[in-house]
Amino acid sequence: CGVFGAVGVENAASVVALGLHALQHRGQEAGGIVTHDFAHGFSSARRFGYVRDNFTDAETMATLPGPIGIGHVRYSTAGSKGATQIRDVQPFFGEFSMGGAAIAHNGNITNALALRKELVERGSIFQSSSDSECIIHLMARSMGKKIPDRMEEALRKVEGAFSVVAMTRTKLIGCRDPLGVRPLVLGQLGDGWVLASETCALDIINATFVREIEPGEMVVINSKGVESHFPFRRAKSRFCIFEHVYFSRPDSILGGRSVYETRENIGRELAKENPVDADLVCPVPDSGTPAAIGYSLESGIPYAMGIIRNQYMGRTFIEPSESIRNMGVRLKLNVNRALVKGKRIILVDDSVVRGTTSRKIKEMILEAGAAEVHFRIASPPTAWPCFYGVDTPQREKLLAATMTEEEMRTHLGVDSLKFISLDGLYRAVGQAKRDNASPQYCDACFSGEYPVKPADMLEQGFEM
Ligand code: 5GP
Ligand code: SF4
Ligand code: MG
């Protein structure tokens, strides 16, 4: 998901809508905006679909007045396993004795089921199936005098990954979990302030990047400025390495590093680790593009667009149902026949998850007359599900969980299949190597080493 907030700006809703539009790659199912001004109180709009279709018309935007607002773009990871219902669309809102507050959450709460059970037993009435709603109910139970105090108390009970943007009538609040699994950045816009999942959302409104919110930090922002707290026990950070590989936009800066450069580095490392004689390096667009460029630069094999992406389709993996995802490949990708015919092709993609996309692409490219197909993957084999906000399927459905690399190669029907090593990936993000005793990043989907115990999943029988 993507989160965004603005305070002290004229017409916060339109600033939030622009920010969310730049974060659309983080969630395409639904979006919502909450604003406040003293003439109207809190206003909100929550809709299915793209930001550009829901939050651009003057009529809707006029229903969201005020100088402060937050927003969220959603793709479902936890909670509703079926289709998203409008009641699951954030921001969530709560009315407390000292006034209202709205919150938007990116990440996944790993003890949400346990918390929900306890809260329901004690009388909380949940409106949605979302893990994020726990935060509002925990805030309602808190005896804190101010809303930020209540939020602090609530978030201390929550486990897992969270980058939260929240608002009261006058304050914008941002918080990252102690490990800082998901990103969150602070920007300045004129006399106002903004919070966003990624820096690309600052660029679109021409805001100045100030800094990242630190892991475990909570900032409370009003007209007087930014106040910073560290409410949690300090821990070594474990940022999601997959944000660098796939999830974030390549024009964003994460942890002081250009995502694009990291992806190009990944491609270079891949070429060093797994060279192969071939005629062309082709990306599976868009997610494989920067790594393919890196592979080409390192190997000296020419880069070419052997697969063309229909720009009017969204991200495949963000389509939650399997049937749509299956269809999606042809709707989204087509082989550039004239280019690939008779050629030995190196195909670079960011990841192999279920293998459905990769298999279809291989079929299409062989149909078009390619002589050989060599897959090079910009991440290690995805053998474990993510419980921190990226929607990987159950373990059984992950190709790498049940097959060796050679079995995967035969299953996909390609001439060769190679993945970047975990150390190669760490080199690409600027580390000498992975610190195996205490890894610098979360890489659980590749290593199975979960930095936060996935309590709900263990309760449901998941075996680590
Ligand atoms: P696959 O061949 O595993 O079906 O799909 C691989 C491609 O789809 C990659 O380009 C990857 O970006 C995307 N993808 C498909 N499903 C998922 C998923 O559930 N999680 C992630 N992380 N990526 C996926
Ligand atoms: Fe990121 Fe993978 Fe960790 Fe999930 S398990 S937070 S996708 S690195
Ligand atoms: Mg892809």
Brief sketch in words of this structure:
The protein is α+β, with helices and mostly antiparallel strands and 464 residues long. The chain contains 18 helices and 23 strands. Iron/sulfur cluster (SF4) binds next to helix 8 and helix 17.
Helix/strand layout:
Elements: E1 2-7, H1 12-22, E2 30-37, E3 41-48, H2 51-54, H3 58-62, E4 68-74, E5 92-96, E6 99-109, H4 112-121, H5 133-141, H6 147-157, E7 160-167, E8 172-176, E9 185-189, E10 192-196, H7 200-203, E11 208-212, E12 218-222, E13 225-229, E14 239-240, H8 241-247, E15 253-254, E16 257-258, H9 259-273, E17 280-283, H10 289-299, E18 307-309, H11 322-332, E19 333-335, H12 337-340, E20 344-349, H13 356-367, E21 372-377, H14 399-402, H15 405-412, E22 416-419, H16 422-428, E23 441-442, H17 444-447, H18 455-459
Parallel strand pairs: 14-23, 17-20, 20-21, 21-22
Antiparallel strand pairs: 1-4, 1-10, 2-3, 2-4, 5-6, 6-7, 7-8, 8-12, 9-10, 9-11, 12-13, 15-16, 18-19
Helix pairs in contact: 5-6, 9-10, 9-16, 11-13
Q: What is the count of structural domains?
A: 2
| Average of the residue pLDDT scores | 95
- DSSP strand content: 25-35%
For this structure, the CATH topology of the largest domain is Glutamine Phosphoribosylpyrophosphate, subunit 1, domain 1
Structure class: alpha+beta
Strand order of the largest sheet: 3-2-4-1-10-9-11
User: Sheet with the most strands?
Assistant: 7 strands, antiparallel
Architecture per CATH nomenclature, i.e. the level-2 architecture of the largest domain: 4-Layer Sandwich
Q: How big is the Rg? A: 22 Å
Number of helices in the DSSP assignment: 18
| CATH class wording of the largest domain | Alpha Beta
CATH superfamily of the largest domain: Aminohydrolase, N-terminal nucleophile (Ntn) domain
Indicate the low-confidence ranges by residue numbers: none
In total, how many beta strands?
Answer: 23
Bound molecules: guanosine-5'-monophosphate, iron/sulfur cluster, magnesium ion
- Helical content stands at 25-40%
Shape: globular
The span between the termini is 25 Å
